[in-house]
Design goal:
alpha/beta; 10 strands; 19% strand
């Protein structure tokens, strides 16, 4: 499936935050627009989103995945958004083959959740790049998520953008909706994770729970953190990491990063 590229496609982790970032004229939406301009245009996208948790591994197999509005309490305009990107059963089957011997089931009815389309609508607004999602297996520990993601590395040589979508720090219970000034523990944990990623100390990030008291506040549940580990697992020798939209809002980190870009 090689397309003759001389350099692998970068892998990207995006801090997606509030679903309204998909349509608001704000720094994060603009940042994702700029992000698409700093990496090569992909042949297709494989997204690992915080918002598809399953028992076992699944990939989307629809030719025409629907736009899932998996949230509530937002303006009507957000529910009216459609992201009609095509699916790619061939990429779904390729992904399943690479992850063997892990069993991967094809879900032909699952669409794209806001962790995927909420970012891609800014990055690729024409919705003309095929998109497939890979689920998060809730039965597996963080180190298995990391090791499984490593097997996806050949996709980078085939023009596939592997996009992790979550947040380094994600604590909605402590989020201040009236004041987005970053809280100290969120900034400290975000900086700690950035430094560990920058210096390729992935083992410490896999075992993020032992990074200190701030870790329990920053990652009260792991679904927004796991996509970061999946992207870091794809880092090759001598590849650097560059940070993008690097900001903390209250108790949510909007930091994004590019591996190999």
């Amino acid at each position: 499936m090689s397309d003759g590229r001389t350099k692998p496609m970068p892998a990207v982790f995006v801090g997606h935050g509030n679903p309204m970032n998909a349509i608001e004229n704000n720094e994060f939406h603009h940042g994702w627009q700029q992000l698409s301009g700093r990496i090569p245009r992909p042949e297709s996208v494989l997204c690992i989103s915080a918002h598809w948790e399953t028992q076992g591994l699944f990939v989307t197999g629809s030719d025409e995945p629907e736009t899932i509005h998996d949230f509530y309490g937002f303006p009507k305009s957000l529910y009216e958004v459609r992201y009609p990107a095509p699916g790619s059963p061939s990429l779904a089957h390729r992904t399943a083959a690479l992850l063997a011997p892990e069993k991967v089931d094809l879900d032909s009815r699952r669409g794209l959740d806001h962790g995927a389309w909420g970012v891609l609508v800014a990055m690729y607004p024409r919705a003309d790049i095929p998109v497939v999602q890979l689920s998060l297996d809730t039965a597996q520990p963080a180190n298995i998520h990391y090791e499984v993601a490593k097997r996806l590395a050949p996709l980078r040589d085939e023009g596939v953008l592997i996009l992790g979508s979550g947040n380094i720090v994600h604590n909605l219970k402590l989020f201040d909706f009236h004041n987005d000034e970053p809280v100290a523990w969120a900034v400290e944990f975000n900086e700690q994770v950035k430094e560990l990623a920058r210096t390729r100390r992935h083992e410490k990030l896999i075992h993020y729970e032992v990074l200190g008291a701030d870790a329990k506040l920053a990652v009260p549940t792991r679904e927004h953190f796991l996509p970061l580990l999946s992207v870091l697992a794809l880092q090759r020798e001598h590849e650097s990491i560059q940070f993008h939209t690097d900001k903390v809002n209250s108790s949510i980190s909007m930091t994004s990063l590019v591996v190999g870009g």
